[in-house]
Design goal:
- By secondary structure, this protein is of the alpha+beta class.
- It has two domains: 79 residues, Phosphorylase Kinase, domain 1 (2-Layer Sandwich); 126 residues, Orthogonal Bundle (Transferase(Phosphotransferase), domain 1).
- It is built from five helices and eight strands, in the order ββββαββααββαα.
- A six-stranded antiparallel beta sheet has the order 1-2-3-4-6-5, covered by helices on one side. It has a two-stranded antiparallel ribbon with strand order 7-8.
- Strand 1 and strand 2 form a beta hairpin.
- Helix 3 packs antiparallel against helix 5.
- Pfam families: Pkinase.
- Its EC number is 2.7.11.1.
- GO terms for molecular function: ATP binding; protein serine/threonine kinase activity.
- Belongs to the protein kinase superfamily.
């Protein structure tokens, strides 16, 4: 048994957790399928709605798809496509250093997902193994980019907010993260960064992590 929320049932089985959200196994009673339910405190509703809006605009096999959204005070629930293989970070730590062929296969899928979303002017801004899902537990798996909580649309314009995970960021984004605001340029103008380029750098670091299972320096 679980908690009924609209057409969904949220079970007590936890799939994962982060700073602001918990993910439980859920069930879509209409389409008779298992789903993932991301539960967030309602006081972050503006950020949740932004994530739902961005995810709803994306439809690609290498991007985790949003299926539904409900509010039930004090919680907000996002129902997502279920991936049963865990995240890429866990996969790497369990496998150790990946073979070059498998790393290429996974990296190619991630590149396809990024190309698709970048063509729609969406940048992820926190791409890392923990935010990449394994669709099913097997060798050479299909992967999906997930957790769009820091994603940004209008990525054809410079970004100024400092977000992301430092080990996976390029220098121009790290400067903003350390200072919490991007310092002005020589003439006092605000200097932003390109979210799409940040994603490409983060993909490179992720590939490095796959091929060299060790500390990032």
């Amino acid at each position: 048994m679980g908690q009924a929320v609209g057409n969904y049932v949220i079970t007590s089985h936890m799939l994962g957790s982060g700073h602001f959200a918990k993910v439980h196994l859920g069930f879509d009673s209409v389409k008779q399928r298992q789903v993932a339910c991301k539960t967030i405190k309602t006081n972050r509703v503006a950020e949740v709605l932004k994530e739902v809006k961005i995810l709803s605009s994306l439809n690609h096999p290498n991007i985790n798809r949003v299926l539904g959204y409900t509010e039930e005070d004090p919680w907000t629930h996002i129902f997502l496509e279920l991936s049963t293989g865990g995240d890429l970070f866990t996969y790497i730590t369990s496998q150790g250093m990946l073979q070059e062929g498998e790393a290429k296969f996974l990296g190619y899928q991630l590149m396809l997902g990024l190309i698709y979303m970048h063509n729609l002017n969406v940048s992820h801004r926190d791409l890392k193994p923990e935010n990449i899902l394994i669709c099913a537990p097997r060798a050479y798996p299909r992967v999906q980019i997930a957790d769009f909580g820091l994603a940004r649309d209008r990525s054809n314009e410079p970004a100024f907010s400092a977000v992301g995970t430092m080990a996976y960021l390029p220098p121009e984004a790290v400067v903003g993260l350390v200072s919490r605001a991007h310092p002005p340029g020589r003439n006092g103008e605000r200097r932003g960064y390109d979210g799409k380029k940040v994603d490409c750098w983060s993909l490179g670091v992720t590939l490095y992590t796959m091929l060299w299972y060790g500390p990032l320096v």
